[in-house]
């Protein structure tokens, strides 16, 4: 084992879980056993909630301008340790070092946004009648939880940590059991930045902890990011216990490519979107709808895909099951009559035979009812469907139950607007393959890509992590007492 066994982080200390059960943490890059992650129990979660509850008494009443001082220091530490943190992300998740560095840079941007929250939560006050004031303030919820997936070991946790704690909450995070190491490092950085004990806690484990979070009466709100299957479970269970919940799910993002699209730029964007982070992004392009004759662009997409080399500029997928699942999708599409233009099956990287790599794969002549067209594959695979009109392409996109992102590639502004207005997705790109809004804009999909109201990052997150206190105050309008008389 390369690293010490993972521990929970409760009340500012690393502590062992109350059970002996563990799972190995394996690097997808080469199969190295990195560590072991404990499968904590509901008892461990309860200890974290108790510590967070105590910390909340002080943290909630610490002025926000003081709270964000911790985040200024945390941001500095993220920057100082960026290379080391990125190396850990790459090791446990399998993405390339370049992608891991970009992930950490995004963590810095997310933290910078949180440091600006004092400017955004000033509330309102108005004299509504003579001597009577109405006032609204954003106040924290209490102890909140964040449940995160494997694909961004550092970024997705940082979607929630800085905003939730800047806004005065105390947090318990449940990392993905596949990539628990990065969150442990973030806990250390927050402590080093001066975060008081108990404000941030980590409880490792699997669905036992997720269920315990949803059920625990001491937790006021639950944010979840992961697959739609689990997002549904968490949303139903947390709201059943009257908790506020925002549950982000999976995706099947469509790119609409029109004949007037700039060929080189489009091909580069499509290839990068489908293969970046080995296709394991909820914003990855996974389906492309070719409108009319765009054969010249498809040829260039294949040329671009062939430049993407596993083990060099393409990372590994998370584990063997994932590699098998992705390859099965490709084989099934082929058997159903689709044409494999670039084939990433049976990929190995010399010297890293235990790594789990899938090469970039371009599948043409896919029919909308095939599994590769409908389901989230979460690998470096693009399925191309062909239509004659933009309306048919939009109909394919909208028939999909997900609604995270969609993009259109065209030089026609009117056509781009037409697609923006009609695509049923929360985040739309025009000539952009991965249309992630940058801070201060919010991130969040629609339909089965998100359950709950509002978005998880940016300004919209303020509504999720706070509640409004409304006070009506009356003073004697004739005041002017002379205290000396
Ligand atoms: P996952 O749903 O398997 O796991 C997410 C979390 O839920 C993990 O912490 C896991 O321990 C827990 N979990 C797993 N099964 C559970 C169960 N049955 N009951 C309760 N908890 C359970 O997701 P993943 O494989 O880690 O991540 C990939 C998925 O996340 C993809 O579908 C991807 O699209 C999605 N994702 C979505 C977004 C978004 O913004 N919409 C962002 C990142 C990832």
Automatic annotation (TrEMBL):
- Keywords of the record: NAD, Oxidoreductase
Occurrences of domain Aldehyde dehydrogenase (ranges): 14-469
Top-level taxonomy: Bacteria, Pseudomonadati, Bacteroidota, Chitinophagia, Chitinophagales
Q: Write down the Gene3D superfamilies for this protein, in alphabetical order.
A: Aldehyde Dehydrogenase, Chain A, domain 1, Aldehyde Dehydrogenase, Chain A, domain 2
Please give the organism: Niastella populi
Q: What is this protein called?
A: methylmalonate-semialdehyde dehydrogenase (CoA acylating)
User: Mind telling me which InterPro entries this protein's record contains?
Assistant: Ald_DH/histidinol_DH, Ald_DH_C, Ald_DH_N, Aldehyde_DH_dom, MeMal-semiAld_DH
For this UniProt entry, the molecular function terms from Gene Ontology, in alphabetical order, are: methylmalonate-semialdehyde dehydrogenase (acylating, NAD) activity
Signal peptide start and end residues: none
The record's Pfam families line, in alphabetical order, gives: Aldedh
* Any Gene Ontology biological process: L-valine catabolic process
Q: What is its EC number?
A: 1.2.1.27
């Amino acid at each position: 084992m390369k690293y010490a066994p993972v521990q929970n982080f409760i009340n500012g200390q690393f502590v062992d879980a109350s059970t002996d059960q563990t799972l190995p943490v394996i690097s997808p890059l080469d199969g190295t056993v990195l560590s072991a992650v404990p499968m904590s129990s509901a008892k461990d979660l309860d200890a974290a909630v108790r510590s967070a509850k105590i910390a909340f008494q002080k943290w909630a009443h610490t002025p926000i301008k003081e709270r964000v001082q911790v985040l200024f220091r945390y941001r500095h530490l993220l920057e100082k340790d960026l290379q080391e943190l990125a190396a850990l992300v790459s090791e446990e998740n399998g993405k390339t070092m370049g992608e891991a560095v970009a992930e950490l840079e995004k963590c810095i941007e997310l933290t910078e946004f949180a440091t600006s929250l004092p400017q955004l939560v000033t509330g309102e006050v108005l004299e509504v009648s003579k001597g009577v004031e109405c006032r609204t303030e954003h106040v924290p919820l209490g102890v909140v939880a964040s449940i995160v997936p494997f694909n961004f070991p550092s970024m997705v946790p940082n979607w929630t940590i800085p905003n939730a704690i800047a806004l005065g909450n105390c947090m318990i995070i449940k990392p993905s059991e596949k990539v628990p190491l990065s969150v442990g490092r973030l806990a250390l950085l927050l402590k080093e930045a001066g975060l008081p004990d108990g404000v941030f806690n980590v409880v490792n484990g699997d669905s036992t902890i997720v269920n315990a979070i949803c059920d625990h009466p001491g937790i006021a709100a639950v944010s979840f990011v992961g697959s739609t299957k689990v997002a549904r479970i968490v949303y139903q269970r947390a709201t059943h216990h009257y908790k506020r919940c925002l549950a982000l799910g999976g995706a099947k993002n469509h790119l609409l490519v029109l004949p007037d699209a700039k060929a080189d730029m489009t091909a580069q964007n499509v290839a990068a979107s489908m293969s970046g982070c080995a296709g394991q992004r909820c914003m990855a392009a996974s389906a492309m709808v070719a409108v009319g004759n765009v054969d010249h662009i498809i040829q260039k997409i294949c040329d671009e895909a062939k430049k993407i080399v596993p083990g060099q500029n393409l990372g590994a997928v998370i584990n063997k099951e994932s590699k098998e699942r992705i390859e099965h999708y490709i084989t099934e599409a082929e058997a159903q009559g689709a044409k494999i233009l670039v084939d990433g099956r049976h990929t190995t990287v010399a010297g890293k035979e235990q790594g789990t790599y899938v090469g970039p794969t371009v599948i043409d002549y896919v029919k909308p009812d095939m599994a590769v067209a409908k389901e989230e594959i979460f690998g470096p695979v693009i399925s191309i469907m062909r239509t004659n009109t933009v309306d048919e392409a939009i109909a394919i996109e909208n028939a999909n139950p997900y609604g995270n992102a969609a993009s259109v590639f065209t030089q026609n502004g009117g056509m781009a607007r037409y697609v923006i207005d009609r695509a049923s997705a929360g985040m739309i790109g025009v000539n952009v393959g991965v249309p992630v809004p940058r801070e201060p804009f919010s991130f969040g999909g629609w339909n089965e890509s998100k359950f709950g109201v509002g978005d998880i990052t940016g300004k919209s997150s303020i509504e999720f992590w706070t509640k409004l206190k409304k006070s009506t105050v009356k003073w004697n309008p004739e005041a002017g007492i002379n205290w000396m008389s």
